[in-house]
Amino acid sequence: MSGLTESQVASFRENGYLVIPDYLTQAEIEALLAETNTLLNDFSLDSHPLTQFTTGDDDQADHVGDDYFLNSGDKIRFFFEPDAFTSEPDPLTGRAALIKPKHLAVNKIGHSLHTLSPPFKSVSLNKQNAAVARSLGFKDPRVLQSMVICKQPSIGGAVPTHRDSEFLYTNPPSAVGWWYALQDAGPGNGTLGMWKGSHKGRKGGHIARRFVRKADNKGTEFIENDSASLPKGMEEEKASEPTDKDLEILNVKAGSLVLIHGNVLHKSEKNTSPRSRYAYTFHVIEGADEWEYDKRNWLQPPEAGFSRLYQ
């Protein structure tokens, strides 16, 4: 199985991301969409804590601090859009109530689809992705945090600017995101916005903060990063902030794969369109001994460790 070409690797190194069209077959797209719809339709609300997903960049940060979220690394769980609820709690239950059917209210499904769902496992832990990881120089790539991001029509929330290694920190940073468009993603329905070259030290690409569990293990917070801020081999240079001229709003066709450097600055806007924007994503980190996965990261490894990509 061949990996990336030299020109693709060079583009990824230069820009911090790479779009690979037609990475999934039409049959794979259809299988993943069917599985997603089955999951959305079949899960029960009876004992669901109605956890809403936010990144912690606003006053709702504690919504991603409950046990349902923190213990989801080896499970399939469902997280709701904040805008899918009433503004006031139900007087009988004391909880906010959904104003959308549940299958149109979910922000994301995660975080171990790559181990627990056969269709998602088949497009995650395979020789093709192993070849791509080798092209990028991984020694012992490990797969984690797999999820479907739904970006529901009209309520799919914005994801503010961030760098993925802030959330899945290794010392030194090593994360790369695999982001598959299951539906067309473009301007208007919450596609990705990428700042070209913003992963480089001279472009402000340092990991300056980290998203971690609180000391009491009852919530999440951002803290200052006082360890390595750039991947191995990347030069420490005086940092400058990326500008709007560096921002590219991607237009990604269903079936495409977007590789995302863990230090590149990116975002997605709210989905204001009447069409959803389903995407499947997971991350790969370096599992070799020279890299340490931080014990305060919000997602901690299961007993057997994170999934190996090289078999």
UniProtKB/TrEMBL annotation:
GO molecular function, one term: metal ion binding
Cofactor(s) needed by this chain: Fe cation
Superkingdom classification of source: Eukaryota
Gene3D superfamilies with a match to the protein in the record: q2cbj1_9rhob like domain
InterPro entries, sorted: Phytyl_CoA_dOase-like
Presence of keyword Metal-binding: yes
Keywords: Dioxygenase, Iron, Metal-binding, Oxidoreductase
Homology family: Belongs to the PhyH family.
PANTHER family found in the cross-reference section: PHYTANOYL-COA DIOXYGENASE DOMAIN CONTAINING 1, PHYTANOYL-COA DIOXYGENASE DOMAIN-CONTAINING PROTEIN 1
The protein, known as: Phytanoyl-CoA dioxygenase domain-containing protein 1
Taxonomic placement: Eukaryota, Fungi, Dikarya, Ascomycota, Pezizomycotina
